[in-house]
Structure prediction request, 936 residues.
Amino acid sequence: MGGSRRLVVIGGVAGGATFASKARRCCPDAEIEIYDQDEFISYAGCGLPYFIGGHSPNWRRLLARMPDEFESRQNIRVFLRHRVNSIDTENKTIRVADLEGVSESSIPYDTLVIGTGAAPVVPPLWGKDLDGVFVLRSLTNALEMKSFIDLQAPHRAVIVGAGAIGLEMCEALRRLDMEVHLVELAEQVLPPMDADLASQVASQLERNGVTLHLGAEVKGLHGGEGTVTGVSAGTEEIETDMVLLSIGIKPASALAEKAGVELGARGAIRVDERMRTSAPDVLACGDCATTRNLVTGAESWMPMGSTARKQARVAAETVAGNESAFPGTQGTFILKAFDVSVGKTGLSTQEASAAGFDAESVDVEDSSRPGYYRGGGDITLRVTVDRASGRVLGAQAVGDYEAVVDKRLDIMATAVRGGLTVTDLSFLDLAYAPPYSHPFDLPVIAGNLAEARIMGKECSCSAEGLED
Amino acid sequence: MGGSRRLVVIGGVAGGATFASKARRCCPDAEIEIYDQDEFISYAGCGLPYFIGGHSPNWRRLLARMPDEFESRQNIRVFLRHRVNSIDTENKTIRVADLEGVSESSIPYDTLVIGTGAAPVVPPLWGKDLDGVFVLRSLTNALEMKSFIDLQAPHRAVIVGAGAIGLEMCEALRRLDMEVHLVELAEQVLPPMDADLASQVASQLERNGVTLHLGAEVKGLHGGEGTVTGVSAGTEEIETDMVLLSIGIKPASALAEKAGVELGARGAIRVDERMRTSAPDVLACGDCATTRNLVTGAESWMPMGSTARKQARVAAETVAGNESAFPGTQGTFILKAFDVSVGKTGLSTQEASAAGFDAESVDVEDSSRPGYYRGGGDITLRVTVDRASGRVLGAQAVGDYEAVVDKRLDIMATAVRGGLTVTDLSFLDLAYAPPYSHPFDLPVIAGNLAEARIMGKECSCSAEGLED
Prediction:
């Protein structure tokens, strides 16, 4: 074994790869090994729809670095196509199967980092194993789907599930000139968003030729000669040449659970703010791990690639013996669907009420720039506040891609993080010039409106009034 | 006089017009009158370069509302081309001259609001009164310049002063295919910015055909037949057909000073957080008034159209007897010069050191989006922090217009407002998807770098490392 410390990482996508790189710098003498059952690691999982849709036709551009670069540049050993079958937290070993061979071996660790991520939810539907039925989580998934599209030239696709991946794939497959049907069990797209805002996204999908089937349960898939040919959704039979199941994801925590590691919110591996699990010398980070909701303080599970990388850095600091604490997240997300951006940070009215706040929301609808400066677009910003304290709890936004919705969401994300009140928001000193915004940008108007609403002031604070 | 309260406003551009509109809603029964020596009020002063340059060829689009709309829709009386010659704070009257006639009359007020704005600094140069020499502050200035350009078709222009207006006008006049020389006394453009960042803007100006004359003092203008023909700048003689003097602005506070109203920072009218001056029942707001620097707490003068409107709203609340306090500003600004955006919020290293902070700055240079998603551009973000507390004090940014520099500045402006530390910044939960940003966006990377710098950690936090 020698004297150097062995850091063993299970999973090498966002969390695992970031952990290994950061740990190498924190612990120059450690032996670092990554085990991953897939044949790719360290890639941009969020970029997969853009590879399929042809924005980024070369999949190698999604790779942050090649496996051999980990070894040659960072002295990190990478074992691809190696599946970890079990963890023995008492003897501090893992059992690893080489999927290319027949061997299973026992690998010792001093510290184990679980970065197994999340796995697509696939319901026990009849027909889920037919050719032409896909999930889209890993680069391998994407390459399989791309190969099917290239070889079979499908004309029609059914996407099941109107979450982020589902919506991004609507755009991707329409770009390939396919007829696209989107099936969703809920009565709206993007269930985390308020229904009226989500309906703006639904309209955009329809304008771009996507056929929506909302409130429709998928009962089964049909096939002929081993290939999918149709979907039973609600009372409808939809003929199709391919199906994407993008119903949702769940934490890949079975391995940890089997080893007796405690699970938390939504079945994710429970971690403390230093990314430690209930088992000694076992850390977890990324989509397989819990986080804390920064607004409510509650343990939760909010898988995001950006969160995975931040948690991984904290895990490396913990391994190095440094004090670093992951504060939690706000569930911030954004996505582009055709020419619309939509996203959220913090709590909605409903979520805030459920968490015990006296919640109130205000809407601002405005253009992103003065009318006299070309370009930009329109945005609806909904800001949710606590009536008792005036604190900003969250925001949702939907608008034209060219209207820079992401800027307004990020201002609100930072405001939520900073504990700003509606009054603080109303006086925010944001960067103003005509090519960028109005003198009163949407978050500032929202602050004014929310303050008036809370204070019961005469409602003088219309967006129009603020522009005077 | 009758029973209703008389609110008299001097100046009707950003502050004055916003005050009057908001006051009308707060005080439905008041008599409200605006006096302005110009023939236009309530226009977007920041839009003038875009009118000249032809982005917005119809100047009427710069008008937020027409003077007669104030009267017909809000019962606010507007007196254009009326100059206020004096204020009698004891007897609560102003002396007003009708510039179209010969009359001067005495107008009583219950509350007076001074919104006289700022005036261009015009040094006592020989030749400043020649035809073809302009300042650009009011819509009237802009119409005069536009008329000169239309009628005289000048081929060459000299812009004196490389501040925001000077740079925006470089773009505007180049769009009109004029040969443009930019003369600046300092050794850099945009003196509020750090020199190395400003040099990126200077390069962009040169790439777009602007000839720079930095460190050059203007000694005089030359003319023939009453029209400007040249500028003596440093050791050079520059031939030209027109000149824009955009050296700077100063608060238009002489009227207030003459009336015994106390002045403060930079000669602006001193106001408290409710916009009250030293004289009873006299308020001031906008570019003529002081503000407080939110980071240092010091009284200062930071004229901005967005600030003027916010202060005006506070003034109206004060008049209505409501509690509202203007917290101050951070000096946030942004401008576009050709394809570059540049701006700042809060303090630079030098300003922070001067204010007594143990200041440190870190730079992040990164693309705005993953390489695999088309578009975007490059940004340099410099974040200034206090070593002692870890608090974020300010930020400067320069980058491609398409890189959405304004978003990063607004995140930083909100972070400064929220009192975020470098650690908070490093964990900000921003909106991430490939069409918008990297998983670690520039402010997050800056937080990591600054934390490492302050803590004296091994410098593991390169942008590259963070992308893993």
